[in-house]
Amino acid sequence: MTSRLTLRSDPATTTGPHFPIGSMIPARTRPLFPDSDLNQLRNGQHCLLYTRFGAHPDVVDGVSGTRFAVWAPNAMEVCILCDSNGWKHGETPLFRVEDGNWSGFVPGLGTGTIYKYGIKNAWGQLEQKADPFAFAGELRPKSGSIVSDLGGYTWHDRNWLDRRRKSNWLEKPITTFEVHLGSWKRPKDGREFFNYRELAHMLVEYCQEMGYTHLQLLPITEHPFDGSWGYQTIGYFAPTSRFGTPQDFMYFVDYCHQHDVAVLVDWVPAHFPMDGHGLARFDGTCLYEHSDPRQGSHPDWGTLVFNYGRNEVRSFLLSSAKFWLDIYHVDGLRVDAVASMLYLDYSRKAGEWIPNQYGGRENLEAVQFLKDMNTLLHGEFPGIITVAEESTAWGGVSRPVYTGGLGFSYKWDMGWMNDTLRYMRRDPVHRKFHQNELSFRMVYAFTENFILPLSHDEVVHGKQSLLSQMPGDYWQRFANLRMLFGYQYTMPGKKLLFMGGELGQWHEWNHAGEIDWALLGFPAHDGLKRLVRDLNTLYRGTKALYEQDLDGAGFAWIQCDDWENSSYAYLRIGKDRGDMVVCALNFTPVPREGYRLGVPKPGFYSEVLNTDAALYGGGNIGNLGGVYSEPIPMHGHAQSILVRLPPLALIVMKPHGS
């Protein structure tokens, strides 16, 4: 299967004389949109703008060149600026067509041409703007767009895409490795970054070694500032040139698919940066953003907020969302900062925001956009997933649009992340006074389709690394972190871990370096990495741990109120009710001998995982392979098992035959 995205002219409708190659004079074009497309654009429902706008290599009357199109309704003039015309405004003008769009065919310009739009605004001022629909951009600090033909790559992932269409990820194991491509590994040969193709091979090998099902990439959309980690996007249709070409990124996704690794990308429709070459005041007016700063500027990030009520902007964002799934075959989008989209008063004080038409704080236009986006993507690409980073109590984020929800597949459980890390940071002697910080989660655990994230946001900005957040001495810190991972993997919800957490980094993440691979070879760090690998293996191979991740029938407390011992125990249950595991945690450094747990069925219970095992760096306190149940009632069950709870550890017991 070969990727193609070209816009060919219809000679019968193209007007204007024949221009020789290199003349740099554009021919007038046919209307940019047929009537049906124009209606979709005007209604904010067009999702294929990348086939119309931007720079498309083309042939007109037998002459090769590039067709350009851009939306700039309030511009007085728009032209192409490039090396061939000395970057002089007016040398290569575009023509105004319908609805404030500008278009033209430039003979002689082809793939690889660096260009910008020269825009004269209503006040006669000239601006140089990157193409909002460019498929590639120059490596920062340069900011030109690059004419790119997205054809020419032959895909080999047909089997993966066929399987994906039939996949119900809600009942499958999802264990996600969150990665920032620029700082996972750095070359030692003087280059700044590895290429997408090199990264594909290294990351697939690592995911297979560790047992991850999904890769989630921090934004790879083009961005000018490394320190934004990609979250201040300029190129909504361009994979960043830091790691190679569009075809290189196609190879990355394709190679992952050929080796059964799904690829999710962070996507940022909540805001965009103010850089002069970007979307801000694109034609001299607030085109993509609101003009009123109470709506149009983001107080936290120094960025601008999209005007979701403008139909052309909605179509721009819908097209970007579809583009990554259509052209690059990615398996889903993690949508950043959804909470900031939903609320008009997000991070604003009284008087700093404008209520909606009903006097409320909900951003009704953004809500409708998110519903439209999820309806579009799930309808056209069965088997993909969309994930919301949403931190409020907004209801139905991951519920279908037809029931009133926003339509996301999953929502990050930020409450779980915050409550759990707050509890884990406490000295174990104080944990018994905060027993409900962990048990409270089950009050709401099945109100959404949750992912349990230990993400990049938790290891930056002075929060320290996960290991450094753990209390106690050297041994206890590792034991606490092993227990945290065990707790994450055995609680209901899909899993996500940011790179470096599995190694036990001591320092928080630095985007300008790489994760501390030198830690490997030290027993405690090796043991932690081995545990994460084994947790992935256990999770993926145990239906009780994933089949009903999102259903209350898949979980039952054995006990959650033993605050004196700071211990918890629960059942995870598969769709076949006989398929179950017992999970028990001891959040103190004191071993609990002869600890009795009620269980629902008689027989032998194998200890299938113990985070205190010696091979993980623990003290090897355990249950000698397993225990038999006894007909002693406990915790509402007729049977019970007597176990040893290791210090600062999780044990997982599986009844024989499950």
Kindly list the characteristics that best describe this protein.
single chain, 658 residues, alpha/beta, Immunoglobulin-like, TIM Barrel, 2 domains, eight-stranded parallel barrel, six-stranded antiparallel beta sheet, 15 helices, 30 strands, 23% helix
* The CATH architecture of the largest domain: Alpha-Beta Barrel
Beta-strand share of residues: 15-25%
Number of helices: 15
* CATH-assigned fold name of the largest domain: TIM Barrel
Total number of beta strands: 30
Shape by Cα distribution = elongated
Order of strands, main sheet, comes to 11-12-15-18-19-20-21-22
End-to-end C-alpha gap? 43 Å
| Count of all domains | 2
Low-confidence parts: 6-28
Describe this structure in words.
The protein has 658 residues and is of the alpha/beta class. The protein has 2 domains: 2-153, Immunoglobulins (Immunoglobulin-like, Sandwich), CATH 2.60.40; 171-431 and 459-535, Alpha-Beta Barrel (TIM Barrel), CATH 3.20.20.80. The strands form 8 sheets. An 8-stranded parallel β-barrel has the order 11-12-15-18-19-20-21-22, surrounded by 4 helices. Strands 23-24-25-30-27-28 form a 6-stranded antiparallel beta sheet. It has a 4-stranded antiparallel beta sheet with strand order 2-3-6-5, with no helix packed on it. Helix 4 (196-210) runs parallel beside helix 5 and helix 14 runs parallel beside helix 15 (523-541).
